[in-house]
């Protein structure tokens, strides 16, 4: 097993998350025998750099998955819906970063720090949760294990890169236009496929993803549903308000947690400090707390502003920050791949 | 009374809020007999424009309040502490926009839409609440009256102008430097008088104002304490997380409210629509919701994302936006002045 190597496909290799996947596969020295970067017809033919070599990007077709062992998908839900079954049919295990299969009962939804064991039950597809869910459940896990979690009320401060490179470019161009007093380009935010587009430069938008019937957005409902599935606990209650802010990378979350038992605040801090994947930055007196600007290119989840609620005896408040392209997407996907090959 | 006119001092006339006070006194045709713009020694001698005239800014000294009927203070807590009693001694009624007297038991803390009647009890000083509190209590008032409010969990998205013009300039300069790849000027955010300064351009900072012993910040505790005082209800529970975002003007708030009784969501919407000072913008299906960019230069409080909580039977979620320099400061102060002269 130690010497086994794998043919790895990255679908969406030229996208914001795909680029981080390639970088991270290289940095973590993932045992790649052959890398197969795949993308839309439009992006095919270009090259990406991997381990000092130029690798040609191929078009993502069903045949492109012949001989692939692990296929990392991050090219949008419709691409996954169409091609993930084709990859599985050809013998690949798919790790899918889109919303396409996350709630499918036969698809494990995995954050290795929380439910690595769920990987064993896969039937070809393993889903990577939504970025805003991942960082929250990593922070909740040690509290869940020690005290139980009754409910969570979360408000997010989400970076534009969650909507892809086009959103990053739009924030930059809008900011330049705003400073120059020019008209702002408005094509992407809050949801590119919807009719109305609003400025994100020097603004905040209380909508990430499309609206649902119940008045919440899909992004908010992802946090609600995925948290239950990852903890395998239909009783855990989450209410979310998801908001886009003019930040390139790094999602922040204001998290109120009601535990099932009373807790000791020092013990909470110690549990978080000792939990895998978490870095505690928590000393408001010394102005120490997590910020997105410090989380960029880091794979951990940063937790701070840890404080007992003023009113509810079993509640506390946290501030949780992580790089949405790394732990929120690429890092988590590759950690799943690492756990997968460790099981073999 | 209808023809009575007043000598009005504006202390901090050259500041971010002072400028809006002058503009708003003019627009609302407040019955000003004489305007007396006051500022620090450094700013004295310059002129401001009022009703088409240049008016010389005088130094704010005790003697400058001779003959003043109404003194609007917005030049920081230490200036108010020193000079508000001097103004009162000389017969002025002080409307103070700083934190200096807000929690003093003999000082009414007033948001006219909520507790205008408290003005009657003043003993020379009336306090204007903190910007983030004002917009929240305006939105809560119709719900409080109809159902009672048990508790509130709020996360804020606060504009930099809450820290004055220097913060507005810093956001702009940092943004320019960031786009150019230059070193960022770091002098103001999150709290100018503290040791450490962090970038606000393309970042969010989970600290507004100084830390308190309990791990909350002063800004957060203002929301907790001021809400109780304004509603004259020590039982109302507020938990706040206050966060600075790279927005020039307009505070946003994600507000979770537990009511004392069950409610009908359509009735909630109708109560909010008919409440003074509120504009409801609420249709997520059509991408209609408040955003800071739309609230600038508007005096109302905008409410949207109105939705029943997914779990708690008496809770709902709101998104509340207002111009922090207007309803959050200047407009509210002048509405207090209007209510004051109407009482005479």
From TrEMBL, chains A, B:
Domain Semialdehyde dehydrogenase NAD-binding: 7-122
Keyword Cell division belongs to the record: no
InterPro entries documented for this protein: Asp_semialdehyde_DH (IPR012080), Asp_semialdehyde_DH_beta (IPR005986), NAD(P)-bd_dom_sf (IPR036291), Semialdehyde_DH_NAD-bd (IPR000534), Semialdhyde_DH_dimer_dom (IPR012280)
GO biological process: one example: isoleucine biosynthetic process
Gene3D superfamilies in alphabetical order: Dihydrodipicolinate Reductase, domain 2 (3.30.360.10), NAD(P)-binding Rossmann-like Domain (3.40.50.720)
Coiled-coil positions: none
Sites where the protein binds substrate: 158, 244
SMART domains per the UniProt record, alphabetical: Semialdhyde_dh
Assembly and binders: Homodimer.
Protein name: Aspartate-semialdehyde dehydrogenase
């Amino acid at each position: 097993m130690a010497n086994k190597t794998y043919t790895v496909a990255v679908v969406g290799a030229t996208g914001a998350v795909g680029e981080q996947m390639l970088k991270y596969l290289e940095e973590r020295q993932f045992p790649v025998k052959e890398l197969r970067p795949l993308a839309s017809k439009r992006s095919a033919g270009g090259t990406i750099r991997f381990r000092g070599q130029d690798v040609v990007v191929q078009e993502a077709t069903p045949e492109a998955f012949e001989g692939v062992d692990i296929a990392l998908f991050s090219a949008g839900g419709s691409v996954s819906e169409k091609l993930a079954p084709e990859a599985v049919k050809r013998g690949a295990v798919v790790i899918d970063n889109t919303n396409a299969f996350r709630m499918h009962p036969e698809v494990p939804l995995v954050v290795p720090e929380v439910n690595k064991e769920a990987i064993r039950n896969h039937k070809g597809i393993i889903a990577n949760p939504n970025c805003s869910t991942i960082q929250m459940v990593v922070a909740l896990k040690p509290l869940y294990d020690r005290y139980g979690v009754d409910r969570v009320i979360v408000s997010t401060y989400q970076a534009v890169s969650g909507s892809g490179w086009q959103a990053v470019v739009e924030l930059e161009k809008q900011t330049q236009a705003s400073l120059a007093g020019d008209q702002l380009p408005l094509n992407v935010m809050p949801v590119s496929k919807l009719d109305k587009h609003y400025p994100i430069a020097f603004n905040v938008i209380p909508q990430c993803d499309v609206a649902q019937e119940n008045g919440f957005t899909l992004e908010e409902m992802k946090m609600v549903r995925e948290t239950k599935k990852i903890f395998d606990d239909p009783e855990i209650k989450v209410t979310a308000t998801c908001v886009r802010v003019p930040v390139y990378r790094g999602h922040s979350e204001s998290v109120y947690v009601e535990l099932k038992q009373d807790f000791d605040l020092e013990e909470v801090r110690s549990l978080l400090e000792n939990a895998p994947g978490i870095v505690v930055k928590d000393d408001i007196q010394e102005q120490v707390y997590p910020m997105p600007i410090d989380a960029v290119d880091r794979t951990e989840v940063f937790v701070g502003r840890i404080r007992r609620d003023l009113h509810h005896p079993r509640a506390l408040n946290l501030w949780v920050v992580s790089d949405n392209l790394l732990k929120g997407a690429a890092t988590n996907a590759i950690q799943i791949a690492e756990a997968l090959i460790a099981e073999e």
